[in-house]
Amino acid sequence: LTVNSILTTTTSVSVCNNQLPYSWNGNTYNSSGLYSVTLTSSAGCDSVANLQLTVNNTASTVFADMICESQLPYLWNGNQYNSSGNYTATLVTSTGCDSVVTLQLTVNNTIYNTVSVNVCNNQLPYMWNGLLISGSGTYTQTFSASNGCDSVVNLNLTVLQETASTTLVSVCNNQLPYQWNGQLFNSIGNYTVLFTNQAGCDSAANLQLTILPVTSSDSYVTVCNNQLP
Length: 229
Fold this sequence. Notes:
- This protein has no helices and 20 strands.
- The chain is an all-beta fold and 229 residues long.
- A hairpin with a 5-residue loop joins strand 9 (85-92) and strand 10.
C-alpha cells in the first residue's frame, strides 16, 4: 500500500493596485491576503495551493511651491509651466507601481504701479526715490514687494514751463496814470508783474510803457480888413 501525501505549494505574488482584480486558479482577488484552493494532483489526491498576495497601493504625494513671475518658466519633472495651477506627473515607485505626484504651483505676479507728477521748471531737479530728475519723461524703478517678488513703479514726470509776455503801450501824457494789471504807472519805463499761470507755475508779464510828447504849432495868417467879421 502506497500512501500519497497531500501536496502543498505556496506562491507569493506582488501586484500593483491598478492590476486588480488578480486572477489565480479561476478565482479573482482584490486585496492582499493568503488564499488557498484545493486541487487534485496527478496521483488523484488533494493538492493544496496557497497564494500569498500582496497588493502595493498607488502612492500619491502633493508638492506645493510658490515662485515669482520673473522665475517663469517653472521646470518640474521635465515639463515647463508658465502659470499657477495643479499639475500631475505619474512616476514609478521602487515596488514598480504608479506614484502620482501633484504640483500645486502658485505664481506671484509682478506688481506694476504708475505715478504721474507735474512740476514747474523752477522745482527741478525733482527728487524721486533717491533719484534726481531734471526733465520730463518716464522713469522706472524696481523694488521688492512684500511677497518677495518684483514691484515695478513708473514715474511719468511732466515739467511745466514758466510763461512770459511783453506788452508795448504808448499813451499820451493826459492819459496818465496808466492802469495795468491792477497797478498805476505815471512815467515811461519797463515794468514787470509776477503771477501764477494756469499750470500753477510762475508767469512774468512785462510792460514797456511809452509816453507820447505833447505837440504844439503856431499858424500865421494875413487877411484883409474886409475879411474880418
